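Good morning C.,

I know you're traveling, so I'll keep this short. The sequence:
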Amino acid sequence: MNDTTIFNPKLDQKVDDVEQEFVQTAEQVLSATFNREVKVALLEILPFDFKTIKADFPQNTVYVKVGFHDGFEGNSLFLFSTETAAYLADLMMMGEGDAAFDSDEHLDAIQEMVNQIMAEYGRSLSSIFDRKVDFSESKALFIDLSPSDFQESNWVRIRLEIDAGQKLEFNRLVSWNAVHKYLPDSED
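The tokens, ready to paste straight into the viewer:
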């Protein structure tokens, strides 16, 4: 984790622990799905800043929203560049990762990939927090990011790197509503 304090040291450590669990879950699910070794690395956890997000994703972006169904309140967002989305979607469809981005074909594949990861991640979080954690079905869109896409909550930004034969980055954002429930109220 980076040295920037986002909440407080105890909650920041819990966020890092929970995100490391996401990394392990994503590696397992994607390795099985792609039938090849996949490595996912947590690059950094940052406070959300729209200007920085927009600088990192200046073109139309694959935006995937998934909400908590049980266990927590709030949402998680995934942001993929078209290059990353095309590569991962092509692997999902048993290709070699060399297809050009096609929103008609690739949005469904990315949405399904996120659903598979989050279903398994929910099981992992259920064990960590000793309560049922489940996510709703994700919704993938191909959009030009604007501040209104992030208005419903404050967010924590997680930068991740995925290596399934080619190293690419994507982002996951988690709403503060969920993060603040990672610790019991007495510890927050």
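Safe travels,
E.
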